[in-house]
User: What shape does this take?
Amino acid sequence: EDQVTQSPEALRLQEGESSSLNCSYTVSGLRGLFWYRQDPGKGPEFLFTLYSAGEEKEKERLKATLTKKESFLHITAPKPEDSATYLCAVQMINGGGADGLTFGKGTHLIIQP
Amino acid sequence: NAGVTQTPKFQVLKTGQSMTLQCAQDMNHNSMYWYRQDPGMGLRLIYYSASEGTTDKGEVPNGYNVSRLNKREFSLRLESAAPSQTSVYFCASSFVILGGQPQHFGDGTRLSIL
Assistant: This one.
């Protein structure tokens, strides 16, 4: 069964304290891996798409990387406004569902001033 | 440019009542989706529409129906609401040719069934 597992479930950091979030996946064929940010009371906001092992994408303090089994979202010198739930999702080759996404449960990130 | 718009934002129903959740996108996307999000679980796909005039079941379709009214609009209907359908419902859209394109989400409808 295809699965997406995110860890840790929750993470509390001090402002400026860098860390990484993990997304491990087991799918038969990966078309793409997506990272989203979700703020309370809002819908997921798209951050990155990664397609193949070795690929990296960056945006401000965020950097996403991909291997054959997992993806990392690295947060460098975070600020309080980076506090949110970060969601990982995968899209499978020939997965049907018009490329519907399979989501992990998310990592709830809190950055303390 | 509104993106994906969902209405209503909040709704409280009694068991057995029916209602329709509305979704519209202005990005000229061909594919649209309905997901539900429950505490401690990832978003789960209810129904999707690959293109205007087509709909199909996702992971958790029981108790729901959908209508792709035109390219812009995709509605989700609960015919006889049950407490287990209390959830936050998200609509998403995407421009799918060969796949691998991100989906863009609305801000959700928070639905409580008493």
